[in-house]
Amino acid sequence: MEESALLVAAQGGEREAFNRLILDYQDLSYNVAYRILGDPDAAADATQDAFISAYRALSGFRGGSFRSWLLRIVTNACYDVLRAHKRHPTVSLDADPELDWAEWTEGDEEPPEEFAERQDLGQLIQRGLQELPDDQRVVMVLCDIHGMAYKEIARTLGVSLGTVKSRLSRGREKMREYLRGNAELLPARYRLYSEGGGAAGLMSLLVEWLDDGLLGRLLRRGAGRYE
User: Fold this and answer.
1) Within 10 Å of residue 83's Cβ, how many Cβ atoms?
2) Are residues 199 and 123 in the same domain?
3) Range of 204's domain?
4) Nearest Cα to 135, choosing from 78, 60, 203, 62?
5) CATH number, residue 113
6) 104-137 pLDDT per residue, tens
7) Which of 5, 103, 137, 220 has most Cβ atoms within 10 angstroms of its Cβ?
8) What is the C-alpha to C-alpha distance for residues 197 and 192, in angstroms, rounded to an integer?
9) Are 108 and 189 in contact (CB under 8 A)?
C-alpha cells in the first residue's frame, strides 16, 4: 500500500496502517534524535514520545510531506528533552563512545580497519555536534547528516529559509573549528600534516566536504576511498 493510502487509512482509525507508516520512518527518526541528543536512551524515549504525539495529532495532518511533518514532531520532542536537561541537568547527554555506527554500513562486509576508522570518525563528529548550540545542531543533523534540502528543513522546523541557511553556516563554521582543534583525535588519514610544507593528508578534504554539506557521506561505508 502506498504512503498516501496508508495515511488515509491511518486517519480513518486503522492503527495497523499507522504502524506501517512508522516502520518506514523509525530508523530515520531515531537517528535524527540520537544525533541531536547524543544519548541513545534519551533518543529512544524522544522517538517513542514523538510517535505517540504523531498518532494523536494525525487527524490534523493536512497533506504535504509526511516525513517533514513527522520529523517536526521528532525534533520538538528532542527540544523538550534538551529543555528538561537544562532545567534538571542530572543525566548526561554526552555522546556515547560505545555507540555502534553500523547503521551507516552499505553493501557487503567492509574491512575491519575501515569499519574501525569510520566508527572513530563518527564518534568524533558526534562529539563535535554536541558542542553546537541546539538550533545549529538540529539544522546540521537534518542537512549535513541526513541530506534534507533547505526548504524541507524550513518546513520541518517551521522557520524561514534564511534562518536555516544562517544556522547551518554558523554550525559548519563551529564544526570546522572543532575538527581542527581536535585533529589529533581524527583517524590518521584525516590529520593535517604540515612537515616541510608537505601534503595536508585528508584533513583539508574533510573540511571541504563539511563546507559542501557532505558530512553524512563521511560516515558511510566506502567514504574513505573517495571514488
Assistant:
1) 11
2) yes
3) 107-222
4) 78
5) 1.10.10.10
6) 444 456 677 777 777 777 788 888 899 999 999 9
7) 137
8) 11
9) no
> Global pTM?
0.76
C-alpha grid cell for residue 206?
Answer: 574533510
Instruction: Please name which of 2, 10, 19, 21 lies closest in space to residue 66, comparing C-alpha atoms.
Output: 21
**What amino acid occupies position 60?**
G
Output the CA torsion sign for 48, 50, 54, 56. positive
For residue 169, what pLDDT is reported? Answer: 92
pLDDT tens for 178-212 read: 887 887 776 666 554 434 333 344 455 555 556 55
- In-domain check, residue 207: yes
- Amino acid identity for residue 128 in this structure: G
In a domain, 101, yes or no: no
